[in-house]
Specification:
Oligomer: single chain
Structural class: mainly alpha
Helix content: 55-70%
Radius of gyration: 27 Å
Distance between the termini: 72 Å
Strand content: under 5%
């Protein structure tokens, strides 16, 4: 029978603390339903079908006839009719509905979002606890409790990757051209990733280090980076749409479409922080922030003694990744509301596009935005969760993990390397920023538009 000292040692061990935190959080999140509370109160819209038209003999939307039924007499120019067309305003009604728990449970992918949200919260909590616990590398991953945050971190990464893979193939959620373009960008991302992991990219361009991984691990990391480039295109396009509408770049001055000042501040802060954090791994920009002792040549002459030490700069980059990931989650509600408001904009444009509006397209768009709201929530949530999970794994990685053969036989040890995991967190944010910035630039030039 264990004595009091051994029992106290067991209760104070890292393994016990990690297990208690994971189990208690899982049980608590199962009953509290934080994902439902997170989305409750958002406004969605319903465009009712005109089942019983009040004027069956009135004007209806014209349908193009088959070419075989058109004779030459119909092609002659006709005089404009002086008859005034009347449009039934009842057909143009749109209703606003506040989402609650019962509504959310009827949306597809809501349960998947709940599972992913709870999994990421538990994983990040265990990774954060590991960061502050006293541990010894000589005691191994089991005794110091490192096995639990590593396992939960890998399970969280696998879960969000499976979800983003599933929703990328949802038939009606996006256009076929967007799916083809995302696949092409994923292949290009894989080619660029191969250049990164094999050292073909000059060190003075990007701060990337892959000297600790070899062989199959380099191919695994390149494939992972290519998949990230593939899956993040359509979510980044949606986030660009939300930013464009939320900051009222259209200058439509419609209160029902734009958001309040605080949500607009969050959208600007989120985007600017993404751009700043992405630049921290670009070597010329990073050299401007490093202390003179670490600088060379013209950089020293340009900025003098202004800058941070290398250790401080490394810590600053990690903090920026953390803040950027948290900002994306905090601004998730605003982005989702802008996605729902995009359907209202489409309805408004169709309503005022002509004397006799054809609202069939806007009715379908309102329905699809309402139907796929939880799918879009996942698209906004997954990139932020990947940034946080990879950042957390970079803080628990170490040489003693790669020497532990039991873990390396089950999990890819390349992700346990601190530099690789940290670079993957930055790669998610970098790809997300490139896609979003390119889409916003096309909006600004008028090549793309929100409708």
């Amino acid at each position: 029978m264990p004595n009091s000292s051994s029992l106290l040692l067991l209760l104070s061990s890292n393994l016990f603390l990690q297990s208690t935190l994971a189990l208690s959080l899982s049980l608590l999140l199962h009953f509290i339903k934080i994902p439902a509370l997170f989305l409750s109160g958002l406004f969605t819209y319903v465009h009712p079908d005109d089942v019983t038209p009040t004027n069956p003999n009135g004007v209806r939307a014209a349908i193009r006839r088959p070419c075989s039924t058109i004779d030459n007499s119909e092609l002659k120019p006709r005089k404009k009719s002086k008859e005034r067309f009347e449009f039934d305003e009842n057909k143009a009604q749109i209703f606003r509905l506040k989402l609650n728990d019962s509504h959310l449970h009827t949306r597809i992918y809501f349960n998947d979002f709940c599972g992913a949200f709870n999994s990421v919260i538990v994983s990040c909590s265990c990774l954060l606890l590991h960061r502050f616990l006293a541990k010894s590398e000589e005691s191994g991953v089991l005794k110091n409790g490192s096995f639990i945050p590593i396992l939960l971190g890998f399970l969280g990464v696998c879960r969000v990757f499976v979800l983003i893979f599933r929703i990328s193939f949802e038939k009606s959620a996006s256009k076929l051209s967007e799916k083809h373009l995302s696949f092409v960008l994923g292949f290009l991302g894989f080619i660029v990733a191969l250049a990164f992991v094999h050292g073909a990219v000059p060190k003075w361009v990007f701060d990337a280090h892959f000297e600790t991984i070899h062989g199959f691990e380099k191919l695994f990391v390149a494939v992972l980076m290519g998949c990230i480039s593939w899956f993040l295109y359509m979510p980044a396009v949606r986030i660009a749409h939300a930013f464009w509408l939320g900051t009222d770049q259209l200058r439509c001055n419609l209160s029902i479409i734009s958001c309040g000042w605080f949500a607009r501040l969050l959208l600007h802060a989120n985007y600017l922080f993404m751009v700043l954090t992405s630049l921290l791994w670009v070597k010329p920009f990073a050299d401007l922030l490093i202390d003179q002792n670490a600088r060379v040549g013209h950089v020293r002459d340009l900025v003098g003694n202004v800058g941070m030490k290398l250790s401080e700069f490394s810590s600053f980059r990690r903090w920026c990744l953390l803040v950027s990931g948290l900002l994306q989650i905090v601004s998730l509600r605003s982005n989702v509301q802008m996605y729902l408001n995009e359907a209202v904009l489409c309805w408004y444009q169709r309503l005022h596009a002509s004397k006799v509006p054809d609202l069939a397209y806007s009715r379908a768009k309102v329905f699809l935005h309402n139907h796929f709201v939880c799918l879009v929530v996942l698209q906004f949530f997954v990139p932020a969760s990947m940034v946080l999970l990879f950042l957390g794994l970079s803080q628990v990685g170490g040489d003693f993990f790669t020497d532990f053969q039991g873990i390396c036989s089950l999990l890819p040890c390349s992700l346990l390397d601190k530099e690789v995991a940290l670079f993957l967190a930055w790669w998610v944010l970098f790809v997300w920023t490139i896609y979003t910035s390119a889409t916003l630039a096309l909006f600004r030039q008028g090549i793309l538009y929100v409708s």
